[in-house]
Amino acid sequence: MVEFFILSIIGIFIGVLVGMFGVGGGLFIVPVITYTLIGFHDYSFNDALIIGIASSLASIILSGIVSTISHHLNQNIEWYIVRKFIFGVVIGSSLVGFYLPKLPIDFIRYTFIFYTFFAAYKILLPRKVSQKKISVYFYHNNLIGLCFASFSGLIGIGGGTLFVPYLSSKGISMKKSIGIASCFGVFIGLCSSITIFLSWDLTSIDKTLMLGPIYIPAIIFLTLPGLILIKLSADRLQKISDKNIRRGFACLLIFIGFMMVLRN
Q1: Cα separation of 100 and 115, whole Å?
Q2: HSE of 25 in the Cβ direction (CA atoms, 13 Å)?
Q3: What is the pLDDT of residue 203?
Q4: Which of 247, 176, 189, 173 has the alpha carbon at shortest distance from 24?
Q5: Closest CA to 196 of 172, 222, 214
Q6: How far is residue 48's CA from residue 156's CA, in Å, rounded to a whole number?
Q7: Residue pair 22/252 in contact by the 8 Å Cβ criterion
Q8: DSSP assignment of 131-157, as one string?
Q9: What does the pLDDT look like over 177-220, one tens digit per residue?
Q10: Calpha distance 46→49 (Å, rounded)
Q11: Structure pTM?
């Protein structure tokens, strides 16, 4: 019961982040599930981390759908921009299950740490008048989508910390950048979850409360309690200025960066 209570409290906090900033919460979900499985179920770190990533991506499907609907109703999603990137996002996230076991975790970790601080810097000090626009070329946009989706799936996140700063740098408002990133998160979670489910065979673990590499209690107690707050947070976003959204998002990126530095 203690385990489920902890997951529920953290899930409520993550729901606020998803609605406000368009992130899938994966950078919080992955370590929470990993150390929950180690502490309460005596899993090895490697198995627990794999399950944490897979479970995080699965939970992002649910939270991303709620967030996307909320942002669509608030007219914060430009669907023509989504179409420019979606092919690359689907392909990139679909490859995750095949490459994740072969890449060094430390390389991914430190690359992401660098990116979070760099993105926070770019958001806090935006250009006064942006001359950058979304490329009109199919291959360019989808290459960006492929790279961001692949990287996001590898560490179990919805891609908000990658897509929001990028879209914002192209002159798209923070509100719409967050809405578009929420939509991408659904596809990243869905496609990555499918390939991870098909690719991984965790024969050494107890299959109780598991669906493949997905830890079911994490979906129930970590994701569901926060879903109602996603809608409330997305609505609240409408009342906040772009300047304050930038500051809040940058602070979140800095916090995530420090959390990744301290994570063992």
Answers
A1: 19
A2: 34
A3: 63
A4: 189
A5: 214
A6: 13
A7: no
A8: -----S-HHHHHHHHHHHHHHHHHTT-
A9: 888 998 999 999 999 988 888 877 666 666 678 887 888 888 88
A10: 5
A11: 0.79
Query: Do residues 112 and 253 touch, judged by C-beta distance below 8 A?
Result: no
pLDDT at 144 over 90: yes
Contact 127, 69 (CB under 8 A): no
Please give the structure tokens belonging to residue 236: 């609240």
In the structure encoding, which two tokens stand for residue 248, read together?
């809040």
| Contact between residue 164 and residue 22 where contact means Cβ atoms under 8 Å apart | yes
Helix, strand, coil in percent for the chain, rounding step 5: 75, 0, 20
Domain boundaries of the chain, sorted by first residue:
2-262
What is the average pLDDT across 65-73?
86
Q: CA-CA distances (angstroms) from residue 73 to 165, 173, 180? A: 22, 17, 13
- Whose tokens are 């996307």? That residue is 68
Grouping H, G, I as helix, E, B as strand and the rest as coil, residue 240 is: coil
Strand partners, 151: none
- Residues 122 and 130: their CA atoms lie apart, in Å, by 12
pLDDT tens sequence across 25-34: 676 788 788 8
Average pLDDT, the chain: 79
Give the pLDDT confidence score for residue 254 in this predicted structure: 82
Predicted local confidence at residue 129, as pLDDT: 43
CA-to-CA distance for 33 and 131, rounded, in angstroms?
42
Q: Please count the CA atoms within 13 angstroms of the CA of 165 that sit on its side-chain side.
A: 23
The tens digit of pLDDT for each residue in 97-126 reads 777 767 776 776 677 777 778 777 776 775
